[in-house]
């Protein structure tokens, strides 16, 4: 009997046979009590009694898949004699149940550097029907290509795996719908929320926004030499960056009003005569474990200021000259040098 058959349906049963005659062969039927079925006896044109089962209430195979009853035929003799037969009714399945997911929504967290093919989560759905009507297959439901290029779902197991590279900095959350469909075409749906967690996979980036490639040596301390932007695409501690200068230098790093900006300023006077240029290595270190670093080189040329006077090679020159020396004779050649550069070192004598 199909589970969707309507109440009132009739099922003729085989009539009992009694070889006696007269009242000894007159038969009546009895059925063990059952809330879903009742017995009716119809009289045929030939006068025989035909037993029929009549469905009283709607069937539900998922609640009860079979019924067992005993039909008894009793003759009219004295004493009466009877015969019995067992009736077994199997309720056949109809696809009247859709797949149901174990959760209305699934949530998972996955690291951004997880290897391709890793299991992210598993969705599960059950169907109360039997056979192909209860066999469930899984798929994405109206999912954009941006999700399909990153995740896949196994149609049989419901396993969701990553098939593409996960990048927290590109996208840190995915929300999409999955579908479970049975063999009869009924389906159920559930939401999936996947959060991508950050890994320290980006080095700090240093960008020189402005730099004075040359600085006069008489610039006062506090003069801004360069403005630098430091950025790390990671988040949290992985994205926190501090900077340091390698080696000894007359410059120092000072944080500006923006947390991602740094300025290089003079902290002591320059002296071109000691160092004509300063080549700095600026290193940025993030707070990851282990930390990642980025670096850049900055070259600052020191421009000359006229801060040095000419210096004779002798403080006193003594010359002995004969009184009859001819006019125009060279008595002495003086020499003076200047430590400055360019026109500042050109010396004139008077």
UniProtKB/TrEMBL annotation:
GO terms for molecular function: calcium ion binding. Keywords: Calcium, Cell adhesion, Cell membrane, Glycoprotein, Membrane, Repeat, Signal, Transmembrane, Transmembrane helix. The keyword Ion transport does not apply. It is found in: Cell membrane. It comes from Nothoprocta pentlandii. The gene is Pcdhgb2. PROSITE patterns: CADHERIN_1 (PS00232), CADHERIN_2 (PS50268). This is PCDGE protein. InterPro entries: Cadherin-like_dom, Cadherin-like_sf, Cadherin_CS, Protocadherin/Cadherin-CA.
């Amino acid at each position: 009997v199909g589970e969707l058959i309507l109440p009132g349906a009739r099922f003729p049963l085989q009539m009992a046979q009694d070889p006696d005659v007269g009242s000894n062969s007159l038969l009546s039927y009895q059925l063990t009590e059952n809330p879903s079925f009742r017995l009716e006896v119809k009289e045929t044109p030939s006068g025989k009694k035909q037993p029929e089962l009549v469905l009283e209430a709607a069937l539900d195979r998922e609640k009860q898949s079979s019924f067992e009853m005993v039909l008894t035929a009793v003759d009219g003799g004295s004493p009466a004699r009877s015969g019995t037969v067992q009736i077994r009714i199997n309720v056949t399945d109809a696809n009247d149940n859709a797949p149901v997911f174990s959760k209305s929504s699934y949530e998972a967290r996955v690291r951004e550097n997880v290897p391709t093919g890793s299991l992210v989560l598993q969705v599960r759905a059950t169907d109360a029907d039997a056979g192909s009507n209860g066999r469930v297959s899984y798929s994405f439901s109206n999912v954009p290509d941006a999700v399909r290029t990153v995740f896949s779902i196994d149609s049989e197991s419901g396993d969701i795996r990553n098939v593409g590279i996960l990048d927290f900095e590109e996208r840190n959350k995915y929300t999409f719908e999955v579908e479970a469909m049975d063999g009869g075409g009924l389906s159920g749906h559930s939401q999936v929320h996947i959060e991508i967690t950050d890994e320290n996979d980006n080095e700090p980036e240093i960008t020189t926004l402005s730099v004075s490639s040359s600085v006069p040596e008489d610039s006062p301390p506090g003069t801004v030499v360069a403005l630098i932007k430091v950025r790390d695409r990671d988040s949290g501690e992985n994205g926190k960056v501090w900077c340091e200068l390698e080696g000894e230098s007359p410059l120092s790093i000072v944080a500006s009003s923006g947390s991602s900006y740094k300025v290089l300023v003079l902290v002591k006077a320059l002296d071109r005569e000691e160092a004509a240029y300063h080549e700095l290595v600026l290193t940025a270190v993030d707070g990851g474990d282990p930390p990642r670093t980025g670096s850049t080189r900055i070259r600052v040329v020191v421009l000359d200021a006229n801060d040095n006077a000419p210096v004779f090679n002798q403080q006193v020159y003594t010359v002995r000259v004969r009184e009859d020396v001819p006019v125009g004779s060279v008595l002495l050649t003086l020499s003076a040098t200047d430590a400055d550069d360019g026109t500042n070192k050109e010396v004139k004598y008077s």
